[in-house]
Every structure is written in structure tokens, then in C-alpha cells.
Amino acid sequence: MEYSFLKVETQGAVAVFTISAPKSLNALNSTILRELDDAVDNLDDAARVLIITGDGEKSFVAGADISEMAHLNEQEGYEFGKLGAGVFRKIELLPIPVIAAVNGFALGGGCELAMACDIRIASDNAKFGQPEVGLGIIPGFSGTYRLAKLVGQGFAKEMIYTGRAIRADEALRVGLVNAVYAQGELMGRAMEMAQRIVANAPIAISFAKKCINESYDLGADEAIELENEKFGQCFNTADQKEGMDAFLKKRKPAFTGN
Ligand code: CO8
Q1: Which CATH class is domain 202-248?
Q2: Which atom number of ligand 1 is nearest to the Cα of residue 72?
Q3: Where are the domains of the chain?
Q4: From ligand 1's centre to the CA of 79, what distance in Å?
Q5: 31, 36, 66, 135: residue to mutate for ligand 1 pocket, most atoms within 8 A of CB
Q6: For the chain, what is the largest distance between any 2 Cα atoms, rounded to a whole number of angstroms?
């Protein structure tokens, strides 16, 4: 599929998706959402980390496209919400880590896209917010679910009810992002983090991601049992043998993802 609004590049084992709709500050219309969906489905098998960012120095994603949403009826609104939520859930469930490199506005659907990623890092000019109630709608790409998970219900409710956007330093303070960098450094730092992940055992990382994701919605006993199961399964992998052999022989491991 040819993409009009999405650039897909692979640098070694790191795939980079750049959302590019400069006229609307990378707002998500249904074409972009379908392109993202297709790109996730067709992600290079060699990719061990995915970085998602926005084009330019002003905006990651300024929300869902308001001009497209303005005339939707109830059924169409439901379907548009479901389309975005479905793509974001696919991103969340990818077996590899996904880093959001938030290079500016992450509003509405932009904040929701960043929250579907495993890790968020931001440029110092980034702004996060859920301004939907000011447009007469609610966060519709799973923002009510994920924001409360990430920052707690109290702060999520304040952000969603007031629509107030927060700056990168406040996002850092409340745990919405892991780190803040100067704009010019952001992609380099994202790539550096990706390379550190790539150096580790891919199956172990995918198991850790599954345990962390699923344990949120499980009781303690089930979450601990899931971890026990995945921990045991690590011992079926060549990479566990390689990692421990390398440690014992004081050499660097060479993981193959097997
Ligand atoms: N949708 C469509 N166009 C947009 C959007 C958007 N979300 N954001 C910006 N644009 C367009 C502007 O209309 C403008 O176009 P034009 O040049 O043709 O007038 C262009 O981008 C540049 O924007 P501004 O001139 O406004 O730039 P500023 O630097 O002055 O302001 C802001 C930047 C603060 C980001 C401002 O553009 C803004 O407030 N944008 C809207 C932010 C917003 O409300 N986002 C949330 C949208 S709702 C949403 O995301 C819901 C998700 C769930 C959907 C569920 C569906 C059922």
C-alpha cells in the first residue's frame, strides 16, 4: 500500500513511523489511521523496536482531524472512534516495544496515540492534553482508559474535564513521559534507547511486555502465575542459553531471537 501521510523507514532493527500531514499539524484523519493500521500489519519482521513520531518541529499529532469529525452522526462517530482505538490497540499489542518520540503537540488523539506506545519521550516544546470536552466530545481513542492508567484517576480527570494542556516538564512530573530532551536531540535519544533494547533478548522483551500489559487487568495471583509461566518459557529459548553462557564466560551475548 502506498502511503500519503506516513513515512516508514527501517534503520537496522529499528522501524520508524513518521506521521506527516503538515497542513493540519499531523491531525489523524481516517486515511492516516488506515495507513497506520496497514503499516503495523506489515511491519518488517526484522524490526525489534518501533519508534513513532510526527513530522516537523511543532507537532507530534494535534488530535483527530476535526474537519473530518465535524459532520459525523452517532453511528459514524462510533465507527471513527473504533477505527482509531483499534489501530492503537494493535500498536499496544505488538510483540516489540514501541517508543513515542513526542516532538510537539500531543493533543486529543495525539496524546492517545502516545499513550498506546510502551514508552514516551518528549521534546521540550511538547504539550499533552485531552481537549475533547471543549469540542463537545470525549476522548474517543481510549484516552479515558489509558490516561487514568498512566497518571492516576485524579490527574486524568482534571486533564479531561478541564481540557488543560500540560507542558513537557509537567508531563514528566506526573509520569506521562519518561524523559524530556531538546527538540534537536529527541530522535537521537529515541534511537539510543531503541538500540539498548535491540541489544537484549527479543523473546524475553516480548514476554516482559505481555506480563506488564496483561497484569494491569489481572488479580495478583493471576498476574504472578502469568509471570511464572513466561519465566519458565524463557528456558526454552536459545537466547536464555546464550545470555547466561555469555555472562559466565565474560563475553557479550549475541541474541538471535530464538
Ligand atoms: N484537526 C484538524 N485540523 C487541525 C487540527 C485538528 N485536530 N489541529 C490543527 N489543525 C489545523 C488548523 O486548523 C490549521 O489549519 P489552517 O492553516 O488551514 O487554518 C493548521 O492545522 C495549523 O493550526 P493553527 O493555526 O491552529 O496552529 P496554532 O499554532 O495556532 O495552534 C494548536 C496549534 C494549539 C494545536 C491548535 O491547532 C489546536 O488547538 N488544534 C486542535 C487541537 C485539538 O483540539 N485536538 C483534539 C481533537 S479531538 C480528538 O483528537 C478526539 C480523538 C478521539 C476521536 C474519537 C472520534 C469519535
Answers
A1: mainly alpha
A2: 57
A3: 6-198, 202-248
A4: 21
A5: 66
A6: 65
Q: Ligand 1 site: residues with CB under 6 angstroms?
A: 24-25, 27, 62-67, 69, 77, 80-81, 84, 105, 107-109, 131-132, 135, 139-141
Assess whether the region 6-198 and the region 202-248 belong to the same CATH fold: no
The full DSSP string for 95-114 is: SS-EEEEE-SEEETHHHHHH
pTM for the model stands at 0.97
Catalytic residues: 112, 132
Output the CA 66–ligand 1 centroid distance in Å. 7
For 187, the grid coordinates are: 530522535
Give dist(CA 257, CA 175) in Å, integer.
Answer: 31
Confidence (pLDDT) at 216: 86
How confident is the model at residue 108, as a pLDDT? 98
Evaluate whether the domain defined by 6-198 bears CATH number 3.90.226.10. yes
pLDDT profile of the chain (258 residues), mean per 10: 96 97 97 98 96 98 97 97 98 98 98 98 98 98 97 98 98 98 98 98 98 94 98 98 98 96
